[in-house]
């Protein structure tokens, strides 16, 4: 994608951060939602140096507030915007993780009450056999267009018109990190990186 447009980008010393908000569903009625509705976004951390991803990830992992402190605070004019299509899938069996966290009875027949999870209710007490987590993150043309904003420029008569805001480039043609975050709580739901981006 090329051409002038507005994107939520922050420029820092040695890297840039792009924030793409996911489209939200209809908010619940205030009476039914005492807490603010969640806001999800994908944040792409792009180092300036082509081999700078590992130094950048070291900074991110050393400071728990690093990600939040470096998110964009406003939209900027972007001249050259390119984000590759990519798809990341991740699967993990959580049995051992849950047992280490203390969830043991759920895996032992007859010890945990899982009747709400079965069709025949309390007539039998099943046990969990496997707990599998799977995540899929995909960025394609539709996703990028849905997150993009349009800049409308108006010509006004003025003796000294203000200069246009400086534009930035965001070209993810080298390794970068990305995060799926929930902005209200600050929770990081998914973290990953793309080592071999291909710009079409």
* Helix and strand pattern: EEEHHEEHEHEEE
Helix tally? 4
Biggest beta sheet summary? 7 strands, mixed
Multimerization status: single chain
What's the number of domains? 2
Please mark out the parts with pLDDT under 50 across 5 or more consecutive residues, or reply none: 144-158
Envelope shape: elongated
CATH architecture of the largest domain: Roll
Based on secondary structure, the structural category is: mainly beta
Radius of gyration: 22 Å
Span from first to last CA?
9 Å
Query: What fraction of residues sit in β-strands?
Result: 25-35%
Strand order of the largest sheet: 7-4-1-2-3-8-9
Return the CATH topology of the largest domain. Alpha-1-antitrypsin, domain 1
The CATH homologous superfamily name of the largest domain equals: Alpha-1-antitrypsin, domain 1
Ordered list of secondary-structure elements with their pairings:
Layout: E1 2-12, E2 15-21, E3 40-47, H1 53-62, H2 66-69, E4 75-82, E5 86-93, H3 95-100, E6 132-139, H4 141-147, E7 168-171, E8 176-182, E9 187-194
Parallel strand pairs: 4-7
Antiparallel strand pairs: 1-2, 1-4, 2-3, 3-8, 5-6, 8-9
Word description of this protein:
InterPro entries: Serpin_dom, Serpin_fam, Serpin_sf, Serpin_sf_1, Serpin_sf_2. By secondary structure, this protein is mostly beta strands. It is built from 4 helices and 9 strands. It has helices at 53-62, 66-69, 95-100, 141-147, and strands spanning 2-12, 15-21, 40-47, 75-82, 86-93, 132-139, 168-171, 176-182, 187-194. The longest helix has 10 residues, at 53-62. The N and C termini lie close together (9 Å). Residues 144-158 have low confidence and may be disordered.
């Amino acid at each position: 994608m090329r051409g002038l447009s507005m994107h939520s980008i922050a420029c820092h010393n040695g890297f840039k951060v792009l924030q793409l908000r996911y489209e939200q569903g209809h908010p619940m009625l205030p009476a039914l939602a005492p807490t603010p509705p969640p806001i999800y976004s994908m944040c792409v951390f792009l180092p300036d140096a082509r081999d700078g991803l590992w130094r950048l990830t070291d900074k991110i992992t050393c400071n728990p507030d690093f990600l939040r402190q470096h998110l964009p605070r406003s939209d900027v004019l972007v001249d050259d915007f390119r984000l590759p299509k990519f798809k990341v899938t991740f699967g993990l069996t959580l049995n051992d993780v849950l047992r280490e966290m203390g969830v043991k009875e759920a895996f032992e027949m007859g010890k945990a009450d899982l009747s709400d999870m079965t069709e025949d209710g309390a007539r039998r007490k099943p046990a969990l056999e496997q707990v599998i987590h799977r995540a899929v993150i995909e960025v394609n043309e539709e996703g990028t267009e849905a997150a993009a904003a349009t800049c409308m420029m108006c010509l006004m008569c003025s003796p000294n018109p203000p200069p246009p805001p400086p534009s930035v480039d965001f070209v993810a043609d080298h390794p970068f990190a990305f995060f799926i975050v929930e902005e209200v709580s600050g929770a990081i739901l998914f973290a990953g990186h793309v080592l071999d981006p291909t710009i079409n």
